[in-house]
């Protein structure tokens, strides 16, 4: 990949209304232009997990936005489980596009963020130029997801001091002395017990992803990335998704942390995909008619 060039970065915010109140969401915008890309983080992870990819895409000409969904990062964190669901997260992405004046975007995400990207394609297909789905949580991940996330819910509900203690400990580690991806992991530990319990409750008991019949109807081009030896995000789920989506390509990562610690290969795959999604359609060739 060519050397990354400097791009503009700015933080913004917008508000979403619901029957339960008004919530503030925060995002970071990279670059400029009409080739929009929205990147979404995984469960309880802040948007800065995608800083590197966002800068790479923006330096190639894309206009990239990373979003803290409700309950993530610097966005509001209500403690009502009813405000959290994959569908409501997808609605927040559509509201972001409306706020930015973006007719369409390539929507991408990791883990939960990948599921949300799929949900955007289900509820607002005309707004999706393409999909980047890294390690989705689908049918083969059910048991592992229960084992991983049920303890989070129970701990936040019945041992809130443990969550608060981890939060205080993580804040004592200066982010400037650790690798960027370790800093993102530490930021993910900065949780408050009541919002965390509400968040996991809402996501855990709601619709996790569009059902198969809806996936089969998604016509947007898709890049699906799967990880080997990942029990919560089995590569089998990613491969199956790539087979179900009518216009998808599957890429196998070399390890769970490849895109975090050695991102060059997958950044290149994502950049090529985004540029292809936004390449102007070629005009149909005119056939010259010959006389009889």
TrEMBL record:
Domain of life the protein comes from: Bacteria
The species this protein was found in: Nocardioides vastitatis
Family matches, as SUPFAM superfamilies: alpha/beta-Hydrolases (SSF53474)
Identification of the protein by name: Alpha/beta fold hydrolase
GO molecular function: hydrolase activity
Coiled-coil positions: none
Record keywords, A-Z: Hydrolase
One Pfam family, short name: Abhydrolase_1
Residue intervals of the AB hydrolase-1 domain: 36-140
């Amino acid at each position: 990949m060519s050397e990354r060039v400097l791009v503009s970065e700015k933080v913004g915010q917008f508000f979403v209304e619901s029957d339960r109140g008004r919530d503030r969401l925060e995002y970071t915008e990279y670059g400029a232009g009409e080739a929009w890309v929205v990147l979404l983080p995984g469960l309880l992870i802040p948007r800065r997990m995608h800083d590197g990819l966002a800068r790479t895409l923006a330096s190639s000409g894309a206009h990239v936005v990373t979003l803290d969904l409700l309950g993530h990062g610097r966005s509001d964190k209500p403690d009502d489980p009813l405000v959290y669901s994959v569908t409501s997260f997808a609605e927040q992405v559509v509201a972001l596009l409306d706020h930015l004046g973006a007719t369409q975007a390539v929507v991408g995400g990791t883990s939960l963020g990948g599921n949300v990207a799929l949900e955007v394609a289900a509820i607002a297909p005309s707004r999706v130029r393409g999909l980047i789905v890294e390690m989705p949580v689908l049918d083969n991940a059910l048991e592992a997801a229960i084992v991983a996330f049920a303890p989070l819910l129970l701990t936040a509900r019945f041992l809130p001091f443990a969550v608060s203690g981890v939060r205080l400990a993580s804040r004592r580690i200066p982010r400037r002395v650790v690798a960027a991806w370790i800093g993102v992991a530490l930021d993910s530990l900065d949780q408050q017990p009541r919002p965390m319990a509400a968040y996991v409750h809402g996501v855990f008991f709601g619709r996790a992803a569009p059902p198969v019949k809806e996936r089969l109807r998604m016509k947007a081009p898709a890049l699906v990335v799967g990880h080997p030896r990942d029990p919560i995000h089995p590569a089998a789920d990613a491969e199956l998704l790539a087979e179900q989506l009518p216009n998808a390509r599957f890429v196998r990562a070399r390890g769970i942390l490849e895109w975090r610690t050695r991102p060059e290969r997958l950044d290149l795959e994502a950049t090529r995909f985004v540029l292809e999604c936004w390449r102007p359609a070629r005009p149909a060739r005119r056939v010259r008619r010959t006389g009889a």
